[in-house]
Amino acid sequence: MKYPDDLTSLIAHLKKLPGVGAKTAERFAFELLGWSQSQLAQLGTLLGEIRAKIPPCTTCGCLTQEGACPFCNHTLRDPHSLCLIASPRDAYAIEETRTFRGLYHVVEHLLSPLDGRHSEALRVDRIIARLDNVKELIIAFDSTLEGDTTALFLKNQLARPGLSISRLAFGLPVGSSLEYIDGGTLARALVGRQNLH
Fold first, then answer.
1. Domains and CATH numbers, the chain
2. What is the number of other CB atoms lying within 10 angstroms of the CB of residue 140?
3. Class of residue 78 by CB neighbours under 10 A (exposed 0-12, middle 13-18, buried 19+)
4. Contact 84, 137 (CB under 8 A)
5. Rounded Cα gap, residues 22 and 177, in angstroms
6. What is the pLDDT of residues 20-44, one digit of tens each?
7. Could you give the CA distance from residue 106 to residue 197 in angstroms, rounded to a whole number?
8. What is the number of other CB atoms lying within 10 angstroms of the CB of residue 105?
């Protein structure tokens, strides 16, 4: 028997979330049907206002709160180091490591001609405008075809004297056993091997 139209629509919207397939979306939808009306109203209000309450920073593209960007505070951050990331979420992941104190710049879209994302989507001019005092540029994209292509393109576009451009190292996870590592990761680890000092 077919679900009611509104339930089918809710399931279709939930399936748009990353990692959520048909069965998980159905489970989520039926779970939401068990929520009280006030809980559903709170969720609806939050979803309706979240983009306005947490807009991207006009400088770096990371998320702001109450008009302030915690990643653009030059008194607390190193203005000579700029890290290019693909999503605001990546800034929070890097911050968890407590090893990077520079500035961030969200590229938003990685190159993917098949999806209609070409070099114009990168807005290279905005990145160039931020390079005045930068001595180190770190490209921190996922190790995917799109991430690798975008990193190579930006390296060629942004190279200039006095600017060091690097990419995150890829390799073996800490505590891993070689027998469980996929071939691609192992190959990256071999290519990026370092001398023992």
1. 5-53 (1.10.8.420), 54-170+182-197 (3.40.1360.10)
2. 20
3. middle
4. yes
5. 34
6. 999 999 999 999 999 999 999 999 9
7. 35
8. 24
